[in-house]
Amino acid sequence: MDEFDYEEFEFFVSGEAIPYEFQSTALPVSTTETSSNTGVQKYSTRFMVYRPKNPEDFNGIAIVEWTNVSAQFDIPLDLIWAHPFAFKHGYMYITVSAQEAGICGQKFDTGVCSPTSLKSWNAERYESLEHPGDDYSFDIFSQVIQAVRQTTNVELLDNYPDIEYVIAVGQSQSAGRLSGYLCNGADTAAQVVDGFIGDDDARIGTQCLPRVPNIQLWSEYAARPVESTSSENLEIWMTPGAPHEDKWQSLFEVEFSGANNLGAEPSVSAEELRETAGNWGQEGVVEGAGSTACLPEGNAYQKRYIFNTALHALTQWITTGLKPPTAPPIDFNPTATVGNTFSAHPGSYNLDEHGNALGGMRLPFMDVPVATYIGVTCSLFGKSIPFSLAKNMTLYESEDDYISKLSAAVNKAVEDGVLLREDAEDMMRRACAFPVVGGELTSCPEVNAQSYYD
Question: For the Alpha/beta hydrolase domain, which residue ranges apply (predicted)?
Fold first, then answer.
């Protein structure tokens, strides 16, 4: 927090919620019954707020993340990717414990909360929290946003400037929950969100026309054939090479979320981790590269670049009306579809001569490659295999040749709205720091393209 001049708060919130079915276009169930499965139920949960210490640095936009609970405790997965960009640009970031597992975890019919859940992790602090079940998570999510958007609720955010726009985000199962939220009546009833980013929704999909702008990010793991990647209020960006969870996210989870849950301190600072986790294979062949081992940090694809672009693109869309660029789909292999069912595996996509999937929204290092990126192997984590020095020397005549080709691809990505200028500069800085063919680099060119968003 101090690095970005941000501050962190935790709030408890209580109320009464109504249930919604997970994936349905039906209206919500709303009765006065108080049974365990239907009708209005009381709840008490928590949410976290990260905001600039100086209110003048707040840009008026709150990103609200539906925290992921697949591991039976809250993990703000999109915050892991987005925190440098969001904090640099003055967003408020709010994480909501919307689901029961974040409060108590899986009881397995024992009546005892799982050890990693909030109520077990700190029983005294979180004793008052109670969750009636995930059917109520949709209304709880709405009510938290309503609370922070109320201009009369000055005590909650300490006379902080009003939130003008809300962007809801979620990754994996949380993206799936947001898809349900969009289509089951909860969003229509509350209308408190101005735009959505569904990040790798585990192929659940949005089964309705979104009320407000919505960008869906699909890695190789989540991508599937669709009739169109663009429609009213919806853009689908498929990212070839990307796994469900990449090296950056995995390392931050281990060092911060996981370590914190076990009561341990991270072994490195966030700043140091960003520097080492932010490379995509251009730093050279690492120990074990090309092995058959599956490691959580196995794919060095940098999905954070795409997520940052999505945040900025959605911000422009909801504030100025500028629609994001439309991306082509990944080039699917027809044999991967059996009947109406698409199966994601290493043979699902047509590949180039380097083993990288064709089509989709492409980061520059996919077209000026120094590695093969496989997003649909090793479960959620995928794998990247840096090229050998010998292979790099067959692709690039010199360091200047590699950097010149990458620079051209980077500038085109900025023009096309795939890459933000600041991330383009970060990419060029990292590329120029590591020789890929073992020679001298004459100069590192600046990014000079006009951005799609300018």
Answer: 2-429
Largest CA distance in the chain: 74
359: alpha, beta or left, given left = phi > 0 and alpha = psi -120 to 50? left
Neighbours of 332 (CB within 10 A): 20
DSSP-assigned beta bridge partners for residue 94: 49, 64
The answer to whether the beta carbons of residues 189 and 326 sit under 8 Å apart is no
What DSSP line would sit under 345-371, residue for residue? STTSB-B-TTSPBPBSS--HHHHS-SE
**How far apart, in whole angstroms, are the C-alpha atoms of residue 103 and residue 114?**
9
Q: Domain 2-212 adopts which CATH fold?
A: Rossmann fold (3.40.50)
| Token pair listed for 305 | 């670049």
Helices (H), 165-210: 173-183, 186-190
Residue corresponding to tokens 């079915």:
21
Give the tens place of pLDDT for each residue, 310-362: 999 999 999 999 999 999 999 998 776 544 555 666 678 899 999 999 999 99
Residue 328 to residue 284: CA distance in whole angstroms: 30
Please name the residue that has the structure tokens 């929950």: 177
Beta-carbon contacts of residue 411 (< 8 Å; ≥ 6 apart): 424, 447, 448, 449
Domain locations along the chain: 2-212, 247-340+347-433
SS3 content of the chain, % helix, strand, coil (to 5): 30, 20, 50
**pLDDT tens digit sequence for 56-97:** 999 999 999 999 887 777 888 889 889 999 999 999 999 999
E strand spans, 411-452: none
Separation CA 232–CA 77 (nearest Å):
27
Whole-structure pTM value: 0.91
Contact (Cβ atoms closer than 8 angstroms) between residue 376 and residue 345? yes
